[in-house]
């Protein structure tokens, strides 16, 4: 392949990672500042923003991924893409307006019956819920335009806009705290303002990108959403609802059974545990359009899928296991919260949540392989059984063993989900790739190497009290390159061949 294609692919992957890394860095930078200015209990209210945003994400119903899918296909004309976008804008916008009014109508109930707080008065907390509903509803529409930009191959630009948006809404609000007042009203109103400008910026870019080429609509063109798109959205709706509930049910239960302060602590641990997922999302965002583009060429499709699995697991397995070893150390340095006397509780909680997130991130290649083939029924089945198993487990651990064991439900359902979705993909959609080979080469061997080096490093850290961040970085680098070298040798490449990681053709 030409060098410029390698560079283009690498640039897109890097831009995805830079965007997501900046999101992650902004969380690690600004969460301690939010806690400093607002306190743990008020920070927990900010956590409700993330919770409600995740819960109403079902409103997307696959519309953003449908746009990405349709815009990625080179055979679709510009006028067809414009029609799809405009029709989905109306549909998406209508759904989000309804959701906002539902949140508005239920704000008093949520404040009075669901949340428990001693320091925030009823009216303020209710107003916060209303502002959260408005901010989340506005923010959701951005996924439609972001999906369009990814489908058009404008990943670098989309990530640049996301970085600017994240910086404005995260950094500038801290300046407002310092200059005006450390109030949640300032926080939520500023989020709404930033969301509005972000949407306008994305939409302007998308419409400009679609203003060239065959934009004149033929007279016989049917101006409605195509049936195959509606079918895809219909299948994704149930997937989105199940996914939203299963991924956030733990926070719903913690926010109901425990005080806002405990929910604040749980939310901090939960954010740390999502790092494997944060790592997986950028690569998945790059890979999905490629999988769609080459779904008819099974040889290339399977090659891309195999490299997707290898590249992702090479990073997330050591990252997750190192996080498990040093979870309390990271929490101490990051938040400056007092975990004294609670170390064992939050160690167990963080390790189980990180393990669950690792198995969730490991599902990403198989999930997007199914989406590229337009198959949503397996994800629906998976999500349905995860709810049936996960909710009773969550309630059992919560009521009988306390908050430290709540994460075992998350770990269990994602491990079982990984087994299911990987089996389906390898059996029906990656028939030329041996399941045993994937397990042995990409999972089992990297796990063993990671556990050995991580355990060895942690032993010396505990014995000599080295800087744990330095030990973690050295351990990760060693694990990464040892696993890469071993796989290269097994698959007949040069020992130092790294081009394989970004040459997806």
TrEMBL record:
Coiled coil: none annotated. It is found in: Cell membrane. Pfam families: Polysacc_synt_3 (PF13440). The chain crosses the membrane at residues 21-40, 46-67, 88-108, 128-148, 160-178, 184-202, 229-249, 269-292, 304-328, 348-371, 378-397, 403-430, 442-461, 467-486. GO terms for cellular component: plasma membrane. Its main location: membrane. The keyword Glycosyltransferase does not apply. It is a multi-pass membrane protein. Keywords: Cell membrane, Membrane, Transmembrane, Transmembrane helix. This is Wzx. It comes from Acinetobacter baumannii.
């Amino acid at each position: 392949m030409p060098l410029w294609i390698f560079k283009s692919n690498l640039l897109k992957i890097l831009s995805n990672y830079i965007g997501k890394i900046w999101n992650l860095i902004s969380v690690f930078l600004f969460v301690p500042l939010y806690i400093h200015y607002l306190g743990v209990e008020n920070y927990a209210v900010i956590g409700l923003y993330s919770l409600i945003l995740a819960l109403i994400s079902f409103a997307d119903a696959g519309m953003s991924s449908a746009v990405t899918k349709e815009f990625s296909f080179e055979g679709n004309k510009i006028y067809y893409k414009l029609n799809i976008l405009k029709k989905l804008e109306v549909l998406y916008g209508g759904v989000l307006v309804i959701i906002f009014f539902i949140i508005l109508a239920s704000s008093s109930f949520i404040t009075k019956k669901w949340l428990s707080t001693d320091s925030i008065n009823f009216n303020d907390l209710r107003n916060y819920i209303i502002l959260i509903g408005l901010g989340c509803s506005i923010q959701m529409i951005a996924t439609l335009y972001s999906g369009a930009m990814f489908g058009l191959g404008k990943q670098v630009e989309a990530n640049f806009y996301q970085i600017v948006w994240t910086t404005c809404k995260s950094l500038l609000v801290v300046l407002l705290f310092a200059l005006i007042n450390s109030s949640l009203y300032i926080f939520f109103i500023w989020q709404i303002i930033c969301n509005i400008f972000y949407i306008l910026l994305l939409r302007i870019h998308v419409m400009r990108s679609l203003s060239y080429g065959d934009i004149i609509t033929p007279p016989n063109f049917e101006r409605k959403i195509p049936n195959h798109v509606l079918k895809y959205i219909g299948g994704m709706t149930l997937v989105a609802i199940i996914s939203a509930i299963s991924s956030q049910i733990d926070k719903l239960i913690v926010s109901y059974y425990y005080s806002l302060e405990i929910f604040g602590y749980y939310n901090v641990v939960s954010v740390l545990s999502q790092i494997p997922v944060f790592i997986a999302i950028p690569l998945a965002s790059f890979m999905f359009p490629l999988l769609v583009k080459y779904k008819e060429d099974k040889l290339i499709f399977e090659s891309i899928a195999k490299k997707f699995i290898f590249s992702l697991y090479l990073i997330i397995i050591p990252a997750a296991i190192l996080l498990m070893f040093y979870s309390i150390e990271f929490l101490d340095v990051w938040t400056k919260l007092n975990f004294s006397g609670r170390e064992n509780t939050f160690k167990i909680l963080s390790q189980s949540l990180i393990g669950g997130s690792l198995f969730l991130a490991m599902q990403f290649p198989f999930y997007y392989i199914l989406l590229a083939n337009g198959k949503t029924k397996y994800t629906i089945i998976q999500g349905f059984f995860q709810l049936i198993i996960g909710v009773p487990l969550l309630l059992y651990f919560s009521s009988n063993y306390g908050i430290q064991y709540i994460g075992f439900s998350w770990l269990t359902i994602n491990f079982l989900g990984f087994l299911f979705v990987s089996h389906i993909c390898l059996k029906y959609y990656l028939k030329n790739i041996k399941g045993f080979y994937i397990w042995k080469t990409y999972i089992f061997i990297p796990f063993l190497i990671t556990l050995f080096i991580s355990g060895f490093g942690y032993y010396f850290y505990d014995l000599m009290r080295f800087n744990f961040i330095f030990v973690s970085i050295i351990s990760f680098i060693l694990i990464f390159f040892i696993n890469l070298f071993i796989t290269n040798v097994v698959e007949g490449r040069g020992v130092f061949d790294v081009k394989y990681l970004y040459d997806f053709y």
